[in-house]
Amino acid sequence: MTIFQLECFCALADSLNFTQTANAMFITQPALSRAISSLEQELQLTLLQRTTHSVTLTPAGKIFSSECHKMLKEFQRGSERARSAQAGQIGSVRIGFQRDNFETYIVDFVNLFRRSHTDITLELLPLSVNELNNALQEKIADAVISSGPPANESIRSLMIANLPECVALPLDHPLAGNDILDMRDLKNEKFIAMARSISCSGFESIIQKSLAAGFEAQIVAQVDLLPTLMTMVACGQGISILHRDMLPRSNGRIAFVPLRSVSYFRRWLMWDINNDNPCLQPLIALGHKWQDDLEYPVE
Q1: Which fold has domain 163-264?
Q2: Residue 262 has what pLDDT?
Q3: Spatial distance between the Cα atoms of 99 and 97, rounded to a whole number of angstroms
Q4: What is the three-state SS of 95-132?
Q5: Which one-letter DSSP state was computed for residue 247?
Q6: What pLDDT does 53 receive?
Q7: CA 178 to CA 38: how far, in whole Å?
Q8: How many CB atoms lie within 10 A of CB 101?
Q9: How far apart are CA 21 and CA 235, in angstroms?
Q10: Vertex 63, ends 57 and 67: CA angle to 5°?
Q11: Which among 185, 223, 256, 292 is least buried, having the fewest CB atoms inside 10 angstroms?
C-alpha cells in the first residue's frame, strides 16, 4: 500500500468519476484503475461498485474512505512536523547553567527564547561548576551559560552578560558613602571571595585586579555559596567585588560602589560546533542578537 494509492482512492471516493479523478491526479485513467485494483487486492476488499454508467462506494469503501482521509491528514501533519524538526523549528534543547546562583539575565534570555519558539521544549539543567565545564564534551547539554573559557577548539561562544562590577561593602564601612572607588583604595581591606573551586574566574579576578593596582588582595575567606558571601559582607567580615545586578538581592544591607576603572562580569552562551541538534540553531541566533543588544557592549 502506498500514499499514492490512498490519494487516488480518496480523490475517487470524493468525485466517484474515474475521468475527473485521473485528470485531477495528472495520470491516465488506466493508471488510476490499476492503482485502485491493486489497493483492493492488497486489502482483500471491494471498495467500489463499478458499472458502465456509475461508480459507487461499497459499505467497506465508505468506511475505508473516511479512515483514509484521516490517514492522509495525519501523514501530511507528520510530514510537516518532520520538516519543521529538521529545520529546528520544533524539538527540544538543553541548557546548562550554574546552580546556587540566581542571574536575572538568564531568566530574561530563556523567557525570550520560550516566547519566540513555542514549539521548542527548553530543558534547564542546574549544574555544578565542574559539571558545567564538562557538560558539552560529555553531551549532557546542548549549550551552557558559563564564565568560560572554552574547553576545546570545537567550542564556540557568544557573550550574553557584560555587567559592570562594583565593590560590595558593609553599610557602615568608611568607604560605603563614596560615589566611586579605585582598586587602589582597597589596598588595606580584607576580601571575601567565592571559592576557587566554585568560581575560579571570580577568585582570580580579585587577585588580578589587586595586582594591577600594586598590591595583592588579602582574601580572608572563601565561600561556596553567593548568599553566604553576601551575608558575610553585610555582617562586616570583609568586602568583595560583585556585579551591579546583585544590588537588589542585598535587600539594602550592602553598599555597592562602582569601580573607577570599570571592569565587567561576563558570561557566555557556549556550544559545540559538532552538535547536530537542529534546535540549537535558533538558540545561537538569539545569542547573536542578545550580544548585539547588550546594555554594555562587547569591547
Answers
A1: D-Maltodextrin-Binding Protein; domain 2 (3.40.190)
A2: 62
A3: 6
A4: EEEECCCCCHHHHHHHHHHHHHCCCEEEEEEEECHHHH
A5: G
A6: 82
A7: 89
A8: 15
A9: 85
A10: 120
A11: 292
Euclidean distance between CA atoms 140 and 123, whole angstroms: 11
DSSP string, 180-208: -B-GGGGTT-EEEEE-TTT-HHHHHHHHH
Which residues of the chain does CATH 3.40.190.10 include? 91-160+266-292, 163-264
Per-residue cell: 41: 487486492
Q: Exposed/middle/buried for 285, CB within 10 Å: 0-12, 13-18, 19+? A: middle
Q: What is the tens place of the pLDDT at every residue in 262-284?
A: 677 788 999 999 999 999 999 99
CB 47 within 8 A of CB 64: yes
The answer for residues whose C-beta is within 8 angstroms of residue 19's C-beta and 6 or more apart is 29
Q: Decide if domain 91-160+266-292 falls under CATH 3.30.70.3270.
A: no
User: Residue 264 in contact with residue 164, Cβ under 8 Å?
Assistant: yes
Question: In this structure, what C-alpha cell is assigned to residue 206?
Answer: 580579585
Is the model's pLDDT at 150 over the cut of 80? no
The helix or strand, by DSSP H or E, that contains position 23, with its residue range, turns out to be helix 18-25
What is the number of other CB atoms lying within 10 angstroms of the CB of residue 274?
A: 9
pLDDT at 148: 67
All cell numbers assigned to 223 = 565561600
Average confidence (pLDDT) over 219-226: 92
